[in-house]
Amino acid sequence: MGRLTAITAALALLLGVLLVQWLPRLPPRAWLPCLVPLIVLLAWRWPRWRWLACLLFGAAWAAWHGAAAMDARLPRALEGVDLAVVGSIADLPLSHPDASRFSLRVEQASVDGKPVALHGRISVSWYQDAPPLQPCSRWHLLLRLKRPRGLLDPGAADSERSALERGIVATGYVRDDPDNRSLGGRRWCVNAIRDAVARGIAARVGDHHDAALLQAFTVGDTRGLQPQDWAVARANGVSHLIAISGFHVGVAAVFGVWLAWLSYALWPGLGLRLPRPQAQAAAALLVATMYSALAGFGLPTVRTLLMIAVVTLARCSRRGSGGAQSLALAMIAILLFDPLAVLAAGFWLSFIGVGFLMLCLQSRGRGLRAFLHELTAGQLVMTVALLPLTMWFFGQASLVGALSNLIAVPLVSFVIVPCALGGMLMLGLCPPLAGPVLWLAARMAHAQWWLLEQMATWPGAHWYLPTVQPWALLLAVLGALWLFMPRGIPLRWLGLLLFLPLLRPPLSTPPEGAFQAWVLDVGQGLSVLLRTHDHVLVYDAGARYPSGFDLGEAVVLPALHALGVGRLDLLMISHGDNDHAGGARVVAEAFPDAPRYAGEPARMHLPMRQCVAGQAWTWDGVRFRVLNPPAGAADRDNDSSCVLLVENRSGRLLLSGDISSAVEPSVAASLGAGPPVVLLVPHHGSKTSSGAGFIAAVQPSVAIVSAGWRNRFGHPKPEVLARYAAAGAPVFNTAVQGAIALDFPVDAPPRREAGWRQRQPRYWRE
Predict the structure, then answer these.
(1) DSSP assignment of 47-77, as one string?
(2) Which of 35, 63, 427, 666 has its CA 20 to 30 A from that of 449?
(3) Mean pLDDT in the chain?
(4) Within 13 A of 396's CA, how many CA atoms are on the CB side?
(5) Closest-CA residue to 336 (of 302, 297, 359)
(6) Distance CA 464, CA 246 (A)
(7) Is 271 exposed, middle or buried (0-12, 13-18, 19+ CB in 10 A)?
(8) Higher confidence at residue 484 or residue 13?
(9) Is the pLDDT of residue 214 over 50?
């Protein structure tokens, strides 16, 4: 296959795979074999249409894999049922004081002794009295499982897409059962070796954080890193360096070449048995493969490994292979092996980043000066070229990333990682010598991380933009390509203009007298964003769990950034329950100047003022009134919730917190007459709330429930839904709809827009 043919085939195959990922539903698997004769006919009889054959093959191959992955998910009839599962731990278990989390590769499963069809990987949490868990160990466990289902909000990550790409077929937790037991472990396992190396590093490096950095650099073990470490990495644009990156695999391959060269220098007679160029290529592939295995075969490492394999094959067969052709062949190999890899951000960052470097960097000879030029220019190219993709996938970028990478890439890849790998080898060959080598690597990692922490505080380190539109992404990528075209191309600076739709997107804010609200999908909890023409209010902030997962950080802040909110004017927390107040601290730290009110200030973990019935204000022609709790009321938990009424000429929004039927009559009496009401259903649809009298008094035109999918409380209760149905009020649930947007125009009734789950339907979303 010629160079052009390889590149064309790769692009056509990629396009076919991508077309499938935009489908709301997959075609039946029985139809896919019908495409095979057409594909073969195109490829055989019409050579000029072979690109179309590649495209159709890519689409059929991706649809087949997607359907197989969806069919492998836990059958819906088994959701919420206790399953006895035998399986082996497929990753490095993560232990917290409250729980242990791990991925289990299922070998067999049964219900009441009857086998059920369940195979693949499941994500498991063990909450109570979890024993020490070792990689590769086999277990018999009683599990309560459900199909992968995530939260869908503006700006937030799509965990259902991630589950599909990672091959997760179910999520769940270990049930307390006397039959839970270990079944031993496998004799040989890469993850066990990774764990042993990580423990060896921890035993010889005194500082826990320095040890965690070395564990990440050497074996891709990021269990010891904290959320603030990832925040520092994102602020500097060096997340790709924390876990083992593709560049590190390239360094390992060079190390293999040096080992082969040293062997031939010590034993020249080897040249009579095997030519040195072929031996060096094979050694590079061998060492790179071993290092990729220690990294857990992540996508960046696999992509680099495949490129090395292509070069090795070409060298061993005495054929030339250009960089672009190697990249295209690596893409073909990945798409053939796993077409769902396109769902991962790493796929795009890896291939587009390397592709830009190949297109935009011209060789300036050899030597230190040429190396320094390529290193500095390469960081500038990568920062600018990957800026659109970074904003698309993560909603943020770092303006100091080019400088941070200029410092971190050579230090980590050429100094810290080789030193740490040397220490890792000493762990197996001569343990007493491992300590000094690892100590040196740890001191260098410590100094580098201190510098990155300082740079993370610089202006522009955390840079957020509203949701990137596809057309703005495409224009920015084309702009980056034009900007870095070779010298001689006229008006290259005009490429900057194509970045303007990305950097200055049009923002839609409500006109004077109107307002918008978003009831976010935070699972079993509550968070509402409300925006007038010039003001923004956050009502509740979701939960924060003992594991450290914070919905304020994972959902509320990304939603604010995605909607283009740069200033918060008021944070109101209805009451002190974790599912409403847990994420408040993160939101308050992000907007420290915003006034804060709560129904139970004494239960909050940060200073807040008491909200009291009668408080009122007006923003941009929109009126706000607090209807509960009354002044001087005793602490009554849920009934102390701040109840907020937001109204304009055409509609009203009643945010009711977790009030019960005990205080609903007083709230209804305070409501008064007015335009139609959109009601946030009290207490997630609990049977202790939403009394028939309250519903009759409020007469909601629309009722919104914020609840978790298959939550253990059974919210919203069927009898509550029946009462709303009897009153003629349609009910919409964030568990079903995802985040729900509400619009309150000036001269029209309130309207509910399609939920996030319906706005962008994809076949992997339940």
Answers:
(1) GGGHHHHHHHHHHHHHHHHHHHHHHTSPPGG
(2) 427
(3) 87
(4) 24
(5) 302
(6) 27
(7) exposed
(8) 13
(9) yes
